[in-house]
Amino acid sequence: MPQTISATGLTTGHAPFVEEARSRGELYISQAYDLYSEENHEAWRKLYQRIRPRWEQYANEHFLHGIEVLGLPPDRIPHLTDVNQRLQPLTGFQTKPVSGYVPGFLFFDCLRRREFPTTITIRPVDQMDYLPEPDIFHDVAGHVPMHTGKAFADVLVRFGDCAHTAVEMTGMIADHAERTRRLTNIIKAMSRFFWFTVEFGLMKGRRGTVAYGSGLLSSYGELRNAIESPEVQRYPAQLEWLINQVAEIDRYQPLLFTVDSFDHLFNLVGQLEQWMREGKLNNVAPGPPEIRENDLRSFMDAA
To answer: Rounded mean pLDDT of the chain?
Structure first.
């Protein structure tokens, strides 16, 4: 193995193993666990030890149970094979290592198959608080514990169903420009819904309002801010808000939505699909996120 690879480890933005796989067009890869450097493991240790007390205070009970049943190590990056051995018998979900961004339809289709695309790199030790792209701490410590419960796992699978419905509803449109317009709006609606629920969702709990969104559960600062800050607006989740609200991607979320339960969330995803079939997602509010060309193409190609 070249010295540059072993010396660099699997640090986000500086991981030759991942960059070379991406250059070869390989989306699904191995974890290559032996390439993690001691600095990589130190980043995991610091992230885990710092946020654990805030999980106890602000995370929903399903997440806390998931942390325990997965046995995530506090002192080193987990082996994904070990995670999968504990996770798969519970809900059928498994982590699936990837080399980078997964185009929209492929991502949702993975969820439909109970596979979660998982980044294998980890942020640098000197960038603990913010990284503009996911890393293994966000994906495994933030997302995967939620996948241990059937109710939430079924929500993710339902999202995958919606992606297939989007292909079904737009694939029959002959006019390319109109098909592109409708599909762009649908993807935007799905992305916003996912952002304000799976990534940044709040729910009612026995201890009051708690977090279930993985963007919150993997962020030391934003987790407390989402629950405690008087500057954050918190409203009951309603579909028309979820699909039309612009997300803030470079600062703490000023507006968050609360569900009553995962059954409530599952029903909202069902409503999202029904609105898709009725054409109510064909004209959502303009603004972010901007839909990437490869996201749009992934839906087009699926048809």
So the answer is: 94
